[in-house]
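Its record is set out here:
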Amino acid sequence: MTSNRPLLIPSPRTPSTHDLPTLPVFPDSAKPSSAMDSENPQPTLNSSSSRRSISSVQSKPSMRYGSRGADSEGAASQKEMNDEDVRIIHINDLAHTNERFEFSGNSIRTTKYSVITFLPRNLFEQFHRVAYLYFLVIAVLNQLPQLAVFGRGVSILPLAFVLLVTAVKDAYEDYRRHRSDRIENNRLASVFVNNQFQLKKWKDVQVGEIIKIEANEGIPCDMVLLSTSDPTGVAYVQTINLDGESNLKTRYAKQETLSKLPEKDRITGMIKCEKPNRNIYGFQAFMEIDGKRLSLGPSNIVLRGCELKNTHWALGVAVYAGRETKVMLNSSGAPSKRSRLETRMNHEIIMLSLFLVVLCSVVSLCAAVWLRRENDNLDDILFYRKKDYSEGEVKDYKYYGWALEIVFTFLMSIIVFQIMIPISLYISMELVRVGQAYFMIRDSQMYDEASNARFQCRALNINEDLGQIKYVFSDKTGTLTENKMEFQCASIWGVDYNGGRGSLEKDQLVHNVQIDGIVLRPKMNVKADPDLLRLLRSEKDTNEGKHVHEFFLALAACNTIVPLVTDSSDPNVRLIDYQGESPDEQALVYAAAAYGFMLIERTSGHITIDIQGERQRFSVLGLHEFDSDRKRMSVILGCPDKTVKVFVKGADTTMFSVTDRRLNLNIIRATEAHIHAYSSLGLRTLVVGMRELTASEFEQWHSSFEAASTALIGRAALLRKVAGNIENNLIILGASGIEDKLQLGVPEAIDSLRTAGVQVWVLTGDKQETAISIGYSSKLLTRRMTQILINSSSKESCRRNLEDAILMSKKLTTVSGNEHSTRGSSGDGITSLALIIDGTSLVYILDSELEEKLFELANRCSVVLCCRVAPLQKAGIVALVKKRTADMTLAIGDGANDVSMIQMADVGVGISGQEGRQAVMASDFAMGQFRFLVPLLLVHGHWNYQRMGYMILYNFYRNAVFVLILFWYVLFTCFTLTTAITEWSSMLYSIIYTALPTIVVGVLDKDLSRMTLLSYPQLYGAGHRQECYNTKLFWVTMVDTLWQSVAVFFIPLLAYWGSTIDTSSIGDLWTLSVVILVNIHLAMDIIRWSWITHAAIWGSIIATWICVIVIDAIPSLVGYWAIFDVMKTGPFWLCLLAIIIAALTPRFCVKFLCQYYSPSDVQIAREAEKFGNLRVSSPVQIEMNPIMELPRR
């Protein structure tokens, strides 16, 4: 079938145009709805070549709760649009358009640097790290002749190496951006120039020009549509590059410009629009053309970054270009987050800095005393010597006096001891995080086959935070559930039709329509209720049958679904795929089709529905989109019988408030009871109502709507008011129940997280009953829990409820504690509390003094469930916890309404599900299923935290032991900062000698296996208790470092005391011994060995030997041939062995005693894993430490 639109045979029951009510069509009102009962899910539409539109639709982008639509538009429209606040564009008149000031060109630039600015700007950004400034100061000091301890070039080497590596990485990334910009700017567009369309580079397009876009082409700039190939002015665009959503959006041209083609008619006019802004879902403007003033909204503009789909061509006029387009204004990424471990590390770095100052102060004070005491002997004294005998004539070295010499000694000490602050640690941490991310991405247990989505690591700087999460804030729809809606049951006119639930596959109904010999069939089948089917087929004319007819007509018509045709295996059968931005709407339209109300065509002015085999055409006279204030949508239809009806669907909380309760009160009460029953089963509910409009009511609505649509101030608020006036005195037709099934493995995942000591809070926009039902099915709630419900309508009521709940929780805690003490450790007497609170109550609690009471109450509860919450309330709840505790928070969601929550939490996780990719794009990590959170936290989080904590402490130890050796040597050389270790070895120590092993261990080492960590979630408590990195461990490490430095320095000193060995030789001995020592120290702590680990550790020791030999083999360097001389002596090899034994024996003994008499959970599990064979079917019983709460901030 080559046609994009199949021919529809006119039905004998379909009225002609003159048979329909003579009522105007208002395309401005056609906007899609969103989910009424919850968080407005978004399906993903993958267009293919086999798909072709059988309809056209005129609609605006759907209202996303809290992020787009009326709210944002209303905020933008509160200002008067005058010449100072707006930009004026003269269509196809560039000279006049740029008369006052020249608008931005269409060239874009996403690069950070240019050839000229790269060096200064990159260095400026890198020196934001204070440690880099420290090493820069050290390098500068070493350039001064009075302070030159090392060679001037050598002193700059470490900092230069780190800066160079980072600069090369930044330059490469920026080159890729530059190359992408060049490709983008040189793309070609068809622009109307000199009375014909000519190809023009995108970068040369200007504001005011008319541009023609062909099918599947990208949009070069933000442009207002003038006309399209569709006779109704509709254009389909894909916004995946803009907001990540792959489903098609509909945009349309104004009726007054549809027939204007620039090749035939000269198009002149003026557009007044708001100044460039970031709101991709809002646009406020009007167009003056042919003496008419036309209002323009978000559905009249197509944005740069979109692609034209299912439309042959579209014409538009450029209004924003280049850096002023909305996509470029939104090009900034999510706020950067910093690892909690790295933040804590700064405290230890400050401690090390103070320790460095103490060392330098000791050296300078001792030097001061020594200079005073030896003042008369300074001319020829060893290590100092003021006289220069290098030439025939004896000269004096420059002596600056006692005071300045002390100052210079202090500064020289800082230079010599500079590696006390490990500059290599920063690069090591970055490399380790990259390696950890690689293995997380490659983890097959976090690969989602259904969506073909691998785990994504979008933020490399917070990997270790995954091992310390205490609070998980989760969305429900699409995160805990699949967000694939299935129609299950309906309450129609007070009767519960629930027979379809639980029916077998044979009860599924397939409704067919024949057009031109081609059978059209819905792509999805729906389980049907037999009583409802019988009623529709045999009792049409009864009162009950008429209400059922109106109910399913509302489901088929009150939406913005676009029917698309796809091919099937049978060439005579085509499948209708109902595409829309809300899975709820899709489920309802599929249900209507299953019961014989099949939507087969939609245009901007009418819809065609096949009703029980008879095709009927309805004029779409108006449509009010869903918004977060009204929580409902409505459509006004001109029916074949020339009546005008308004159909409304929405959340029960708002629908029952606009019904005429004087009529059919029993029906309303029955419907409310059925809704409560559906919610208790975990179903999502929508209420459907309608009423017939009189001619006067319609005319009044028409005039009000027209005035509101063209208003320049407060347009959104006026449209809401018009909708509210027409959506009243409704007759309730019934309600629908839609099931959103739990994702696979969600109950087990929540149970594992709670066992691990992680508190799971669920924040949802669903009804309380629905959320509670999902809570039970997901094992978040249990029957033994005591539920605390807070549903308040005033601040005082909230205060009283919170105070009462806190008092009750204290009593229950006391009682359960007493029972627990009498029953022992069985835990039978412990009473768990569950707090369930709604969004209305949170309005009065958040940002008030009641926050403290809410946190106190929530802290006493095992489960917190927040219902009917808005997106900003989700972020507010996360902020409430972050402000009052030092514990780590994680937020996980799948929709745009979860973005604020994800960005507020310490760690944000996006689910790549049915609602687009906004959550993924704003997240730090992304995955396909909620259950993957368990291996992410309990396995990779635990590993990453353990590795990074150990690596930081090891780097502190590795550098401090080297500095202390230099310090001990200074004490024996008259405090003159003479060094026995060569300057090259000092510089290479942190770069080559010892850097690689710690990186390899940080990436590959595993203290426990995956199976053990998953089998015993309590092991995750090690991160909560900060077992791998804390102040106590830091000081214990420093004490161990002090002892090891004593062993390394004094054993060779005593062995060669009184000998004629030179300083370079003993310096080489110290260098080799300290490198061997720190590597064996690391080897003692490795749990999982691999060939890579062996190669890194023993290879580093071999590399050190080679480097020392090469350095000492160069005649121009100090210490020529020293290593060869010292290796000939017997004490050399004995010293190496004695140093290793003496330095590591205390550490070995302390580790043995601690693990034997006071083992941690991890050590117990490791021993059981090694000797108890945890992989057998009957698991070894391991008694874990209780998960203790850390003190609150």
